[in-house]
Design a protein that fits this description.
Domain M23ase beta-sheet core: 157-259
Pfam families: Peptidase_M23, PG_binding_1
Mean pLDDT: 78
Strand content: 15-25%
CATH class of the domain at 146-264: Mainly Beta
Low-confidence stretches: 1-5, 20-39, 110-136
Largest sheet: 8 strands, antiparallel
Radius of gyration: 27 Å
CATH architecture of the domain at 146-264: Distorted Sandwich
CATH superfamily of the domain at 146-264: Glucose Permease (Domain IIA)
Number of strands: 13
InterPro entries: Cell_wall_metabolism_enzyme, Dup_hybrid_motif, M23ase_b-sheet_dom, Peptidoglycan-bd-like, PGBD-like_sf, PGBDSf
Domain Peptidoglycan binding-like: 52-107
Order of helices and strands: HHHHHEEEEEEEEEEEEE
Biased composition (Polar residues): 114-137
Amino acid sequence: MFCQRPIDILTLRTFMKKFILTSIVGTALLAGPVAGADAAVGDQTLRDGMNHSDVSELQELLNEKGHDAGSVDGIFGPNTESAVKSLQSSEGLSVDGVAGNNTFDAMNLEAAGNTGSSASSEKVAGASTSEASQSAGFINPANGPVSSEYGPRGGGMHNGIDVASGGQSNIAVKSAASGTVKQATTMSGYGNTVIVEHTVNGQTYETLYAHLASINVSAGQSVGQGESVGVMGNTGQSTGTHLHFEIHEGAWNGAKSNAVDPRNYVSF
């Protein structure tokens, strides 16, 4: 009788230790693994020799953008590196074959449908006049400060927005939405110019990119949103390196009767 109590206490202590250990292990299992988990594509730098799911997503995005990464196998090898260099070259970036922040920014992940990225989605700014304008999803065609707004200017009408170079060089000019190149030529006043036709929710839009230093596309070519159509320049009636950008609700015409304020669709 006198030895019963110490045995009960010992048993209780053993039971409590097992219970606590089981609870800790169970909590860890429910929480799932943390260390070593893949970050969303775009959140880390990808380079030659890597092998995981983020590389597969990178390969898919490169192929969608027309830069051949070969098989989507998750292995960052010569084909993937070559595709990254192709993208970097087309976007006017430093060509090193390493997919870092600037490379992913140039790929416009949200526009490519990458829901895994933690980057902010492109926003459509300004008061839209219709449901179509709210869902058009046009993006900023070039990096740089706005130097001239849409509206009356110098006794006439400025039918677009000017984006300046901000002292930078070789700035890529990108298609604001996917579509088909209507014109890629030299136009009076505009200099080297590209016009792209887009269809959004059954409505036709055309965007115009003028004063380009060089043109990277040709008439009839399909382009993706964010794909380079040229390089910002100073051709035509221009007083400095900049992009003149127009959006037309309908086809572009010489009278610019379909021109609208690009801020209705684009966040500059």
